[in-house]
Amino acid sequence: MPAQSEAPEISVPVVSEPKEEPKPVTPAKKTVTYFAVKSDGVNLRSGAGTNYSVAGTAEKSTLMEYDGEVNGWYKTRYRDKTVYISKQYCTLVVMDESENKKIEAVISEGCNLLGTPYVYGAVRLHDGKGNMLKGFTKNAFDCSSLMQYMFYHGADKLLNVNTRTQVSQGTTVSRSQLKRGDLMFFTNASRKNNKGVERIGHVAMYLGDNYILHTASDYAKIEQISTTRWSYFIQGQRIL
User: How far apart are CA 75 and CA 47, in angstroms?
Assistant: First the structure.
């Protein structure tokens, strides 16, 4: 019988498994840490210990910026000075940081001045056009002069001299659109029946999580927005 020829080899293509596309990595949000004070009248001291002099006191439920810890004492700023508070009277609070570095710089300027007394009609830093005013001091602010100072030193941004002129600056945002660093404008009991900008009686900076940095009747502080204050809210303005 004739020899049988071998069957030709058939080449079978190798099918590789499809590679999974790498999942995009979402960068972690940067945060800023504050501490909430758990009692009224907690001493703020010039150093980390009870043997240091008292520089002031902290109010219950207000926030101050956390700048580190030394031997069980939180470091922060108060009236433009470094002070310390015993951590046993505090609870840490974390908020999302703004992506805009200028906003964080503006807020930092405000945190430097927490505890500064409120003085109605306090001398402004400048006239709204950048001309510095005589008699200005960092020892007294009202709500609009504090915002003007913060934006000038934090972002080189000129704000007008009072709430009824500042409200026309920037872009108007609603309550649902508020972001960290926006200005919030409110009326008050004596102005709520006025019309137009004459209704405006107060300005504060929104930090997030229902907290504002402002000064109103006593001293500069970070606190939650009360139900009453929300009832007076008129609009927000995004400056940066």
Answer: 9
Q: What are phi and psi of 230, to 5 degrees?
A: -60, -35
* Whole-structure pTM value: 0.88
Locate 181 and state its tokens. Answer: 């660093």
In whole angstroms, what is the distance from residue 59 CA to residue 207 CA?
18
Token pair 């930090």 is found at: 207
How far apart CA 129 and CA 169 sit, in angstroms, is 13
Provide the CB-side half-sphere exposure for 118 (13 A, CA). 14
Chain segment 52-69, per-residue pLDDT in tens? 999 999 999 999 999 999
SS (H, E, C) the chain: CCCCCCCCCCCCCCCCCCCCCCCCCCCCCCEEEEEEECCCCEEEECCCCCCCCEEEEECCCCEEECCCEECCEEEEEECCEEEEEEHHHEEEEEEECCCCHHHHHHHHHHHHCCCCEECCCCCCCECCCCCECCCCCCCCECHHHHHHHHHHHHHCCCCCCCHHHHCCCCEEECHHHCCCCCEEEECCCCCCCCCHHHHCCEEEEEEECCEEEEECCCEEEEEECCHHHHHCEEEEEECC
CA 116 to chain centre: 17
Taking only the tens place, the pLDDT of each residue in 160-201 is 999 999 999 999 999 999 999 999 999 999 999 999 999 999
* Rounded-to-integer distance, Cα 144 and Cα 140, Å: 12
Are 37 and 114 in contact, with CB atoms under 8 Å apart? no
Cβ atoms within 10 Å of 144's Cβ, excluding its own:
26
